[in-house]
Design goal:
Length: 475
Amino acid sequence: MKFNPEVYSIPDERMKPFIDPDEIWGYINSAKPTRERVREIIAKSLDKHRLNLEEVAVLVNTSEPELVEEILQGARTLKQKVYGNRIVLFAPLYIGNKCTNNCKYCGFRTSNTEAVRVTLSDEEITKEVEALEDNGQKRLILVYGEHPEYSADYIAHTVRLVYGVKKDRGEIRRVNINAAPLSVEDFLKVKKAGIGTYQIFQETYNPEAYSWYHQAGKKRDFEWRLTSLDRAQEAGLDDVGIGALMGLYDWRFEVLGLVRHTNHLEACYNVGPHTISFPRIKSASGLDITNQYFVSDDDFVKLVAILRLAVPYTGMILTAREPVHVRQKVLQFGVSQIDGGTKLELGAYIESKNEKQNLNREQFEIGDSRSLGEVVDDLVEHDYIPSFCTACYRLGRTGEHFMEFSVPGFIKRYCTPNAVLTLTEYLVDYATPEVKDKGYRLIDKTLTELDGNQNVEEIKRRMERIKAGERDLYF
Ligand code: SAM
Ligand code: SF4
């Protein structure tokens, strides 16, 4: 789909940088959030049109409480109207924390001599994955420092290894990656291993701030990172995730940067990012930053709602960096994926090591240390359907968020039934009796709501087949 044409000071060209900080500040400094304009922009988004930079700038400048509440309400409505109440669950698996960069905000930075450096052996990876499968996980994101040891061949090897681990009824059906930027040739290698999304965060879209935080190693090169997902696209890897680390620079600038990046990918490749992430900085061992750009909880909620309205057909990821109360609040505004049962210490899934966090072995401190079971329980309690669905990517239905958003009936035909089926598997294989009860009640309610729109009888038949021992049934 074509977005609203905008004329940028740097035109969009494949593999070419596209961020002009003066332009982004120009939009922010000239945006006037009048009542009429803010309402017009919210209405445009609710009408299923993505927003341009000028419109996003108006929203980020809105501070009048009543109007901010309207922005939040707009995002809530959009989420309910378009996406319903599914939340996809995943877990991160840290493979290795050796790193040649020195990002001032990260516990893995090369100058942090306190950090205990670990790369999991194949055997350890296998054990970790088995432990994750024992908890009910089906989707993982593998995370790596930037280091010659973590080459594209090595990343591809670990991806294949993870897919091959099957324990009892457990298996990992989608492996995503968060690692350093690669060349086109190297992206091809990881694509061949069957990865889902390749995620790279720009950290900050402001080149000057970027230089200050990244003074050593390959990550110094702002443009190599900025164009990394272009190279992924050139390699045919069209499932990419973008993000900005909130707290490094003015969050309003980062929100416009994320939208500009989305526009660039759409203009050059006709497909926007699969997901957007907006992690907030957490305390880490050896952290070397000030809190000048710290993002408050209120601003964080606002920025999530604005992103939802700005790019209504992109998946949005909220991680366990955030504490439970913030996660619960932000879920309403359009988040589509969260991690559950997260442990960041390398090797921690096997040994339940994370009972007391040890910052020297972790990238940063997490805010939500609940088990996957507790997260599922909490979601069900609040009427969200936990989903472990991996159907679209395995059936080659790429651009699923866009289809969810734009194809009438897509969610009722595919997403909700698949959420119900994967939740049924989870309830049968891993849930406590109480969660089972609550889960089946939520499924009943969901099927009632689907009645008349979908072949509810077929979903029920498949649920029975799952209860009888079949696995991995999807539409
Ligand atoms: N090393 C690769 C890289 O830098 O792109 C990938 C892995 S890095 C471990 C994943 C992300 O964690 C980074 O892109 C950054 O946004 C985030 N991160 C780093 N330090 C953090 C901190 N103190 N709090 C929250 N997130 C952090
Ligand atoms: Fe290394 Fe990534 Fe941490 Fe930077 S953010 S120090 S590149 S692991």
